[in-house]
Amino acid sequence: MSDSAANKPPITFWIVSVIALIWNGMGVKAYLQQAYNTEAYQNMYTAEQLEITANMPTWVTALFAIAVFVGALASIGLLLRKKWATKLWLISLIAVIGQMAYILINVHASSIGMTIMIIVLAIFFYWFSRMSGAEGWLK
To answer: Which UniProt keywords are given for this protein, alphabetically ordered (predicted)?
Structure first.
């Protein structure tokens, strides 16, 4: 069996990679809606929630941008089977942890489930990328 056939990723690799791209694409959309304060964004939240978001420190908003944009690039890297995707996943994970830690500590989010899910998915995508590299699926 040739090296390329032996290192061919299974269908689950492609499924997870596409899900990662969709997830981070949704994150980019959410960030842009928040950054531009669109009508659609304003209609999704209460006045109190919008005020909390508007009063977030700039560094938390920057971490949000880093998490989703770097995560989207990492997703593309994963789909292209590039090793550098793992480094980007780590950067995205660190940004997610920083942003979500601030939210959990200071905002007392009523949507704690979503906050935890975001952290778990960031950890999973980083782990999956590392595992994919170890399996020889990334070049």
So the answer is: Membrane, Transmembrane, Transmembrane helix
What is the rounded CA–CA span in Å between residue 41 and residue 127?
32
Question: What pLDDT digit, counting tens, does each position of 111-132 carry?
Answer: 789 999 999 999 999 999 999 9
Exposed, middle or buried, 139 (CB in 10 Å: 0-12/13-18/19+)? exposed
Q: Are 69 and 99 in contact (CB under 8 A)?
A: no
CA distance linking residue 27 with residue 29, whole number of Å: 5
| Top-confidence range, 4-8, 10-14, 109-113 | 10-14
* Burial group, residue 5, by CB count within 10 angstroms (0-12, 13-18, 19+): exposed
**Into how many domains does the chain fold?**
1
The verdict on residue 82 lying in a domain is yes
In terms of residue numbers, what domain contains 52? 3-134
What is the DSSP track for 99-130?
HHHHIIIII--TTHHHHHHHHHHHHHHHHHHH
The residue among 77, 58, 68, 70 whose CA lies nearest residue 25 is 68
